[in-house]
Structure formats: C-alpha cells, structure tokens
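Human: I'm a chemist; would you kindly supply sequence and structure tokens for a protein?

Assistant:
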Amino acid sequence: MKWWFLLAALPLHGQRATLPEFVAGDQCLFCHRNDIGPGWQKNRHNLTVKLKEGSESEYRLGARERKRNLRKSGYGKFAMEESAGGAWDPAKFNDRCAGCHATAVDGATKAFAEFSIDCYACHGVVDLEHTNDTSKILLSKKRGRDPKQIASICGSCHLRGGTSKAKGTPYPLHYVAGDDLFTDFVVDPRRADDTGLNAGDRHVYRNIRDVLENNSDVSCLSCHVVHTGSFERHRRVLTSAACLDCHNESGPKKNVKPYTVKSALCEY
C-alpha cells in the first residue's frame, strides 16, 4: 500500500494535544554566537518574516518574487495587507502562512510563539545536556541523520499542498521535529510527476517520495547546508534524474530551466 493512501486511514495516534516548552533561538545563539551567529542574521530561514527597516511594528513576509506587509494584531498574530495601501486581513497570515513562516503555532488559537523560523523548528525540544554530549540534539553529526526524519522536518514547510487532517490548515498541527510528520499531514507524492508543478516543489516531492517509498539515503541535508546557506554540495552532485527537474539534460549545468512559481496557497 502506498503511503499517501495509508495515511488517510491512520488515527491521530501520538498526535500532540499541545506544544511543548522549548528553548528559544536567542538562548541557542548565546553559545553558538561564533559558529552560527554571524551568518544566521542573513539566513533565509531566519528571514521568512523580518522587521521592516526603520519600523518597530511593521514586518515583511517573503522576498524576491512576492512580498507582503504585516503588522501586529495581538499576541502571536499578524494582520496582512492585501495590496499596497489596501485593507488589512487579520486572519490570513495565521490561517495560511504561520505554519511555515513562524515557529510553534498553537492549534487552538493559531498564534505563534516566534515569528520566522527558530532553532526549535528543525532541532525540536533540546536536551540541555547536549552541551556535554552532542548526540542528544537532533540533526547533530554525532547523533546521525535519519533521512526519513529529515523528510518530516523539511517537509513540514516545503511540501506545499499538504493538509492537516486534524485542523484542515495547510500546515501540520503541533508538529515537533523528531515526530512523524505524516501522522497528521496528508500529501500526495504523485505530485512529483506533475509537470505542471514548479520545479522546486516537484524536486521536494520527488526526494521525499524516494526517501519514504524507496528507502533512499539522499536527504535534503545531503546537498543543502542550512545554517550557512551554502550550495557547495549541490554544485558537486553527480547528474541524476532528479537534476532534470531544474537543469537541462545537456549543456552547462549553470543553464537552468525557467523557474516559475505557481502556488495558490502563497499567491505567487
């Protein structure tokens, strides 16, 4: 039985009723200020939402292709400007965007604990003893990196088109790194073969399908270095079928296919 059909029959066994307490990223950077700190301020994950320059109350969602203005509308909530100078929607960000552009979204209120992507989103609940034994922290080299676990962590944001069974939101309910994302989050990996899907999304679906169905040991972290944003591993990869999502079959690798984003969810 394929996994996307199996998921539909699963009860919410082990689904978290509430989110656990966690160590905020500012505390992490106290110790990691020299190795992670210098680059983190410019890291894309840290900038999914950012304070607008010169403002103390208005924020910016997105970059490059599409940007939206945000402003605080209560604890852990943003109102979103529909268009430049337009009306402010008090619900859209928390209903549709918060699960991937903020950290620790409460399922009952849809309020987030931290705007943008915090350390907790990928490393989960941190055992404070990891300072003496790094195997106690998720995704550390000493602990080892399980491709299926990585598929859950990265897929919780990058599998656009999924739906929470429990809440119907386009992001999972109370997912914590280290959990099985697919207990609650239902996606159809056949979208990896959808030529109408943009290359980036199709690539994510293809990789996660290979990991979950074919036990591939190639994960997102095989090529992407999240903390530094380095693409060096990507440049060194050998040509495979997955490369052809973005690259041409012949000619220099730097000549890539046109990248067009098509997302009804993200509206760009």
